[in-house]
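Narrative summary of target 7.
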Amino acid sequence: MPSFSRTLYYLHKSEGFAEHNPNGQAIPMDPTVLIFSGVYLSQAEITPGGLGKGKLGLSQAPARTLLRPVPSSDAPPFWSAIIYQHAGDGIVNVRGEYPAVRSHFRELQEQASIYHANPPGGNNAWETDISSGNSGYFLTGGSGPNALWRIMRTQVDALNRQVLTLAPVQLTPTLALPSFEKAQPQLREFLAQHFAGFQQALVRNAPFDAIDRANNLTEGIVSHCLTLTKASPPDTLDKMLKKAKDILEREGEGKGFPLTYYGYNLAQQIRVLHARLHQNQSVGQGKTVRPEVGLNLSVTVSELLVEVGLGKY
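Modeled conformation, tokenized:
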């Protein structure tokens, strides 16, 4: 059994955490001490299904993994935590004060979940992933920008406990202000709807929704540009971009076409990224999209809107 310095208890009846002392007792911790439940996700699990499964795992009782924040040498938003893993349930002796005499203690037995801070070198999935050069993440709950954390560094403290340094998966805040007045009324409504959906996806920290919305928004933007040349927009973004490329490459026809080569390449970047989410092109070939990439589409979408005259900073 690990030493007392590497053992935590979750007390079922008291609904609080306790630490193990050398006398074999569980000492209740101050309830203000923050301890988070967490679910580890590999790079391959950063998919809509994987994130959904991870959120279900957070509601599991007892929690499989706990993250105990500790002082970090890194400034916010980075933070460090000791990792504890569930090692079974059992009856523990809990030291408590007598109600009338606070200097005297009594021992009560209580059902508890036991957690160990194991040293590195075990069968931890994140150690395997990181040693292979892959990214690893911990999901800690909620739906905002603090729900998903990327592992930046692994360390061992003086008591041989594994300490991870984590960074939030955050979106880039720069987003252009849209101005869809130049678009035809029906297309204007389409653009406004998907721009609003794109914003909401960023706020909800939903990277795959953001990619979907960005792709739909790009369809509307390229369709608008083709309409200005009196061309009939095809039914897919891929076909639209092929038609736009033909216009750009024909001598004289590209002049005045709002979709420049720069805008064309921005649109292609969004289209290709969206294609990676498809089963036959992402999971089927072992390819995944890091959530930061989807959330940082705010820059690509903003540049595209500004470039074609449908937005401004």
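The first strand starts at residue 7 and ends at 11.
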